[in-house]
Structures are given as structure tokens and as C-alpha cells.
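Work Package 4 report. The design task specified in the project plan requires that, given a folded chain encoded as C-alpha cells, an amino acid be chosen for each position. We show below one input record used in the internal validation round.
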């Protein structure tokens, strides 16, 4: 198997560079026009340990956090601000963090940056928390609810939904890529930081946190496999996981649904869908909402 080709998105998406070029432009336009915002909130000493917080017009119903992708080596919060639009329209605040990148720090430290960003963002906004991430960000979002605890127990209790969009849930295949010359993932890091290999937190097992794995039907086969893998792994432990392979979407445009308030991806991030029940004690509703596979 050619692992480098299997995980190469740029080479298999027509006019891929045009997507990358427009992200920061759309994000800058959104930041300039959205009035209720707090930019560059520091959660650490490094210049990349910052997040932006966008607030709705009314008192926020809760907090959504979107963690960006880029193979843990590229991009920053400023490239994705426009993706807050759909969630903001539902009255939730949205935090978008940057984090330190490889090779500055190893991947396990990047996971801890994500945890620190979510922790501080949660201190700014009351109510339920919805985590989402794309690609490497999908890995980080699901890592926050699995394995060695990275978030304090009271904070985990506030999380009601986690959505991994085209996430990488098993890091072991990346050991065989040239990308790993930069990422420096070891067997030990892969074992400790791969959500598909880890036990989900007790709140996930108890059905108190709804889990989505969402990808594009036009993704590379390895990314479709990575999407299904988390559902199969955690599903085998009794965790209800909703799986979606969205028709016509590939790795670079699957996140566009976050822009529109009426998109199914926004509904998934906010724990909506078959049921709009947000009660953490309503486990029957969660099962109805989240057990759905295509």
C-alpha cells in the first residue's frame, strides 16, 4: 500500500489550491463583519496558543468549539472564522483555537494545547459544550473524550456532543508516510493518542455525549475508513455513534456545511437531528439521535 498517496488529499481534489486560497479570505471577511467577538485570547505563552471567540446577539445558549485541521502542521484559527456562521445563527458562541504545530512540538503536546484551549474557552461561556474538528482537528476533538484524561471531569460533564469531520482516528498508518518525518509520531504516541485505540470517557460510554463521525463520500478511501473505524471501535464498546458519508463532498468542501444554519452538519454539531432534546439525562433520546449509519 502506498501510504503517502492514501493520505494525499491535494493530489486527488480538482483545483485543490483554490479551496486553500479562499479560506483565509472568507474568514477575514467574516471577522471584519461580525460585531460580537473577542480575538486572540491567550491560553498559553506561545503566540499560537490563542483562540477567537464569536458571540451571538443574545445570551449564548452554550459553546461550540471548532478545531482546525492541517495534518497538525499547518493553518491557524484565522483561516476558519467563517465556519462559525451556521452555529452562531442558533444562538451558540463559537471558539476557534490555534495550537502549536509540528515540528515545534510533538503530537501529544498538540493534544494538550487543544485541551487547554477548550478549558479556557469554556470559562468564558456558560452552558453545554459542543466540540467539533476537521481532519487533524477531528482527531483532537475525539482525543479530548478518550484515553488519558486531558479535560477536568466537571468540564467533561458539560460536553453534550462531539463531531469529528474527516478525522484521523488511528495514527499508526501515518508512521509509514513521509509526513511523519515532520510529525515524528512514534509507536508509543500512536498508541496513546489514537482515539480508535483508546477507551472513550465514561460520559461517552454512558450515552451522555453524542458522537458523530462525518466525512465526504468523495474522500480518499483511507479517510472513509478512518471515519468508519471510530464508529466500529467505539460501537463495539456499546457507544452510540452516528456515521455520515455526505454525498458529493470531498476532504476540502465537507466543512462548508458549517456555514449554513439549516445544514445537517450544523444540526449534528449541535446535537440535533432525529431529536432536539439536549437533556443529558435523556439517554433514550441520545440513542435515537445518534445510532444512525449510512
Amino acid at each position: 500500500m502506498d501510504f503517502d498517496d492514501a493520505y494525499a488529499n491535494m493530489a486527488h481534489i480538482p483545483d485543490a489550491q483554490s479551496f486553500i486560497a479562499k479560506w483565509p479570505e472568507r474568514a477575514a471577511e467574516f471577522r471584519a463583519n461580525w460585531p460580537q467577538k473577542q480575538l486572540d485570547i491567550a491560553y498559553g505563552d506561545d503566540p499560537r496558543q490563542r483562540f477567537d471567540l464569536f458571540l451571538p446577539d443574545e445570551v449564548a445558549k452554550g459553546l461550540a468549539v471548532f478545531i482546525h485541521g492541517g495534518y497538525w502542521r499547518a493553518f491557524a484559527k484565522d483561516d476558519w472564522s467563517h465556519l462559525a456562521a451556521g452555529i452562531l445563527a442558533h444562538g451558540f458562541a463559537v471558539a476557534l483555537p490555534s495550537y502549536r504545530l509540528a515540528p515545534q512540538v510533538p503530537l501529544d503536546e498538540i493534544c494538550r494545547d487543544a485541551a487547554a484551549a477548550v478549558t479556557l474557552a469554556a470559562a468564558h461561556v456558560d452552558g453545554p459544550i459542543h466540540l467539533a474538528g476537521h481532519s487533524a482537528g477531528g482527531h483532537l476533538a475525539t482525543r479530548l473524550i478518550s484515553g488519558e484524561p486531558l479535560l477536568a471531569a466537571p468540564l467533561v460533564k458539560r460536553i453534550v456532543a462531539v463531531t469529528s469531520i474527516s478525522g484521523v482516528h488511528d495514527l499508526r498508518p501515518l508512521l509509514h508516510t513521509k509526513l511523519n518525518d515532520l510529525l515524528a509520531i512514534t509507536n508509543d504516541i500512536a498508541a496513546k493518542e489514537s482515539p480508535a485505540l483508546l477507551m472513550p470517557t465514561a460520559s461517552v460510554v454512558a450515552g451522555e455525549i453524542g458522537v458523530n463521525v462525518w466525512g465526504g463520500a468523495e474522500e480518499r478511501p483511507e479517510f472513509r475508513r478512518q471515519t468508519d473505524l471510530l464508529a466500529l471501535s467505539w460501537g463495539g464498546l456499546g457507544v452510540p455513534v452516528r456515521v455520515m458519508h455526505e454525498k458529493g463532498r470531498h476532504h476540502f468542501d465537507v466543512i462548508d456545511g458549517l456555514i449554513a444554519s439549516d445544514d445537517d452538519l450544523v444540526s449534528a454539531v449541535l446535537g440535533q437531528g432525529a431529536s432536539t432534546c439536549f437533556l443529558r439525562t435523556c439517554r433514550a433520546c441520545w440513542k435515537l439521535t445518534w445510532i444512525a449509519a449510512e
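The longest strand covers residues 159-165. Validation will be extended to a larger panel in the next phase.
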